[in-house]
Amino acid sequence: MSLPREGSTVRLIGLKNPDLVGQEGKISGYTADNERVMIALSTGVVKVKPKQIEVIAGPSRRASGNNRSSMKGFRSSTKSNMRRGYSSRSSLGGDAATELVETLKSADAMFDLADTSGDGYVSKEEFEYYMKRHTNHSDEMIEDVFRMIDRDGDGEVSRDEVRSGFLKKRRELAEKSGKGGNFDLDDELLACSKDADILFDKADVNGDGDLSKKEFELYMKRHTKHSDHTIRDLFNMMDTDHDGYVTKDEVRRTFLRQKQQKKNGGKSPSDLENGGKLSMGDLLGLEDDEMHELPDDVYSMFFLSDVCSQPFWYGILIFILKQALIMIIAVDLYTNKTFPSSDEVPTLVRATQFLLLPVNCAVQEELVTTFFIYSNLKWSETILELNKGATKWKYHGGNVARLMDGLSFLFINTTLLLQATDILSMFLNFAALQFLQTIDNIALHLARDGYLMESLETCAGDVLLMKLPRNHNNKLQLLDSILLFTTFAILMAAWLTMSFMNF
Fold first, then answer.
1. pLDDT, position 485
2. Contact 165, 148 (CB under 8 A)
3. Distance from chain centroid for Cα 427
4. Distance CA 250, CA 240 (A)
5. How big is the chain by its Cα radius of gyration, in Å?
6. What is the pLDDT of residue 405?
7. b/e code 21-31 from CB counts within 10 Å (16+ = b)
8. Helix, strand, coil in percent for the chain, rounding step 5
9. How crowded is residue 235: how many other Cβ atoms within 10 Å of its Cβ?
């Protein structure tokens, strides 16, 4: 499927947020893996899946000029907002806070456009490309601006550094105009924005830039012990426009309002529980790192599914398919081929086999994942509050199936390595098996992207939402390293046996 060109005019479709559906904008870029497309709207930049856009018109020859013109307007508007911010009352009141939030919103829009790789940082090359495309600045001026923003001098710009740069420019404009302002509020807003980013990084699973009520409730139930009533109150408190979704701007305003009220000695939003003794970060469980994501495969779908449901049988079907393919390969290897004697294998081939042994062990994703789960995570009854189908026996059943999957592929991979007599065929066979190993991942993404039944899409999406608690047994946490080392030792013993024994 070919992706629309940058600059194409598109319409947003198929989004859960009704306010975004039907909006039109231009494609400003793609993430490095092409999994997300960045759309420049009049209100900012959003990242969506390619299937959630509908092309209206291709990029025009004057697209670059139009973009430059629009960016000039954008900067002019931002500069106007900056000026107005310090003309408002200097107390920790609404006008100043609103203008600060708008300034931060502009900074984020610039960062999203410049970060074409989607890695969360703007490199010097990305920054230069953005500035040359949207401004008329000289190379020397662009270099000076980059050095000014890159406070730590590491050669790349973070989102926080861009935000600080925008706020610094805002202060300079206020000083030039002779208008005062409360600069302490800038630091408050930066801290609030970081908390908002943490919340969205943890809770915004589908990456659409909005928190749905379901995403928020699942996140809160995992990371806090609040009642359902309190969780609903928190969501309604942050959902200031009452559209059923929470945006980063709404979270920022809520965090900032809480800090302002606490500073003024008033009642803060954290008074919902604990008499206001908790910060918003504490109330939302942002410091809770005691949970870990589920493996992104069909075995997690099996774990979360209801017994005898479509996702339940889908997981079993994919497992049977992979095992059937492995059995066919095994029958062929042990009936039509034999292990060569040590003198039939060239020394270079033996050396290559030796070098591939640790690789063979490390690439068994299902095997390594199972080792990690039983060493570092645990099943808890609390997950039943989030998903009634995630019972303990299916937790172990899914992990056993994943373990059998990993062991069977390890066995076949090792057999192919030890039967090889030339390097090229050994690498080709090794690569072919790596493709077969990804069948369960492909099956999961087919379901999640909506190519199959709706129940499968829902369950595949739940895999991203659900998490398991970590265990705190230091001795048990060594188990994955011990099991991985033991597996490698067994492979080494097999290689030594084949290398120095004649058949």
1. 92
2. yes
3. 32
4. 7
5. 28
6. 92
7. eebebbbbbbb
8. 65, 10, 30
9. 18
Chunked mean pLDDT (size 10), the chain, 503 residues: 76 72 80 73 75 71 40 41 38 53 76 79 86 82 85 81 79 67 60 68 69 78 71 79 78 68 52 45 52 85 91 93 92 86 83 88 89 87 76 92 92 88 84 84 88 87 80 80 91 85 56
CA distance 172 to 103: 14
Residue keyed to tokens 């999994």: 35
Who contacts 149 (Cβ-Cβ below 8 Å, separation ≥6)? 157, 161, 162, 164, 165
Whole-number Å distance between alpha carbons of 186 and 191: 9
Judged on CB neighbours under 10 Å (0-12, 13-18, 19+), 344 is: exposed
Question: Which H or E element spans position 215?
Answer: helix 213-223
Q: Of 52, 49, 11, nearest to 33 (Cα)? A: 49
**Which residues lie across from 246 on neighbouring strands?**
211
For 14, the token pair is 């198929």
DSSP track, 238-301: H-TT-SSEEEHHHHHHHHHHHHHHHHTT---GGGGSGGG-S-HHHHTTTT---EEEPPSSHHHH
44: region left, alpha or beta (phi > 0 left; psi from -120 to 50 alpha): left
pLDDT at residue 313 in the model: 94
Q: What is the pLDDT of residue 44?
A: 67
Q: What tokens were used for 293?
A: 């994501």
Beta bridge mates, 158: 121
Single pTM value for the model: 0.52
Per-residue pLDDT at 36: 76
Distance in Å from the first CA to the final CA of the chain: 52
Q: Are strands 121-123 and 156-158 parallel, antiparallel or unpaired?
A: antiparallel
Amino acid identity for residue 1 in this structure = M
Question: What is the distance between the alpha carbons of residues 484 and 462, in angstroms, rounded to a whole number?
Answer: 29
Residue 177 confidence (pLDDT): 66
Distance from the Cα of residue 208 to its chain's centroid: 11
* Cα 85 off chain centre by: 34
Bridge partners of 41? 44
For 25, phi then psi, to 5°, come to -165, -175
Question: Count H helices, E strands: the chain?
Answer: 20, 11
- Those residues whose C-beta lies under 8 Å from the C-beta of residue 401, and which sit 6 or more positions away, are 299, 302, 315, 319
Nearest C-alpha neighbor of 362 from the set 324, 294, 409, 395: 409
- Spatial CB neighbours of 159, under 8 Å, sequence gap ≥ 6: 107, 108, 111, 120, 197
Q: State the Cα angle at 165 between 160 and 171, rounded to 5°.
A: 125
Which 8-state DSSP code applies to residue 389?
A: T
Question: What would the two tokens of residue 279 be?
Answer: 């910060």
